[in-house]
């Protein structure tokens, strides 16, 4: 019998209503194919509110998702800025594609729209990039793969994001990485073969990117049924929110970038 994954998952962060750390409060949002999540973070990235979650609208157009965010965040007040993790390609605050949401997200100015709606500065990045910021140690080459509705991915070198990576849609075998280890792959091939493909992806990315550490996030990490290799760690879903503060520290995500 194959042993259960033994790598230590990052512990869930205890929330608090204290705002001891000086500095701006960030409203961190994680837009997913199945759920929308939000939380307030202090200047050091610690939660100062409970996490709020609602289901992603069945027809997840920009209008429907924004309406849901308006309702969901009504109780999360007092924030000075907004950070958003989005499940698709993002450049300078514009969503170029959202493979697991709706075609209307193509070329949608999400960052500008949020600033207009909520009258606060905002930054938007790929959701795996935000989760990576919440997980990485800033040492060497670090990669994160998120296992959810699709397959998210981000890469960091010494704490600095390499933006624009969309490995999930890169050709692999007969299809793409996401077709094998995203939710479609899990539903199509079953848990046993899905685990086999995930092991192959771990080995493939190690050989391709020579990462020093790989982090696995997303709701489907609970389906992992094998012992993880050295330097591979499961991280909590909360890291998809906790990385929000780092968006304001990494200038590669600034609209001033070419």
What does this structure look like?
There is one protein chain. With 258 residues, the protein is α/β, with parallel strands linked by helices. The protein has two domains: 26-129, Nucleotidyltransferase, domain 5, CATH 3.30.420.40; 131-239, ATPase, nucleotide binding domain (Nucleotidyltransferase, domain 5). The chain is built from six helices and 14 strands. The chain has a five-stranded mixed β-sheet.
Shape: globular
Strand order of the largest sheet: 3-2-1-4-7
| Termini separation | 52 Å
Helical coverage, percent range: 25-40%
What is the domain total for the residues? 2
Alpha plus pi helix count: 6
Question: Uncertain runs with pLDDT below 50, 5 residues or more?
Answer: 1-19
What is CATH's topology name of the largest domain? Answer: Nucleotidyltransferase, domain 5
Give the CATH level 1 class of the largest domain: Alpha Beta
Structural classification: alpha/beta
State Rg: 18 Å
Chain-wise SSE layout:
Layout: E1 26-31, E2 35-41, E3 52-55, H1 62-72, E4 81-86, E5 89-91, E6 94-97, H2 110-118, E7 122-126, H3 127-135, E8 141-147, E9 151-157, E10 160-161, E11 171-172, E12 175-176, H4 177-181, H5 183-209, E13 213-217, E14 232-234, H6 239-242
Parallel strand pairs: 1-4, 4-7, 8-13, 13-14
Antiparallel strand pairs: 1-2, 2-3, 5-6, 8-9, 9-10, 11-12
């Amino acid at each position: 019998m194959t042993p259960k994954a033994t790598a230590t998952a990052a512990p869930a962060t205890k929330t608090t209503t204290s705002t001891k750390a000086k500095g701006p409060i960030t409203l961190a949002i994680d837009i997913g194919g199945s759920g929308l999540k939000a939380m307030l973070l202090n200047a050091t990235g610690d939660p100062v509110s409970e996490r709020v979650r609602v289901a992603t609208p069945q027809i997840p157009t920009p209008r429907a998702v924004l309406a849901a965010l308006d309702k969901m965040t009504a109780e999360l007040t007092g924030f000075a800025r907004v950070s958003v993790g989005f499940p698709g390609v993002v450049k300078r605050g514009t969503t170029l594609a959202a493979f697991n949401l709706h075609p209307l997200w193509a070329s949608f100015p999400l960052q500008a729209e949020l600033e207009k709606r909520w009258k606060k500065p905002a930054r938007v990045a790929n959701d795996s990039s935000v989760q990576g910021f919440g997980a990485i140690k800033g040492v060497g080459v670090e990669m994160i793969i998120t296992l959810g509705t699709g397959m998210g991915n981000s890469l960091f070198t010494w704490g600095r994001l390499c933006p624009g990576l969309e490995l999930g849609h890169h050709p692999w075998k007969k299809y793409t990485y996401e077709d094998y280890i995203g939710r479609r792959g899990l539903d199509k091939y079953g848990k046993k073969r899905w685990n086999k493909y995930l092991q192959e992806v771990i080995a493939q990315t190690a050989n391709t990117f020579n990462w020093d550490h790989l982090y696995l996030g997303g709701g489907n990490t609970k389906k992992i049924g094998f012992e993880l290799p050295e330097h591979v760690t499961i991280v909590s879903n909360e890291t998809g929110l906790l990385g929000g503060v780092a968006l304001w520290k990494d200038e590669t995500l600034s609209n001033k970038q070419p």
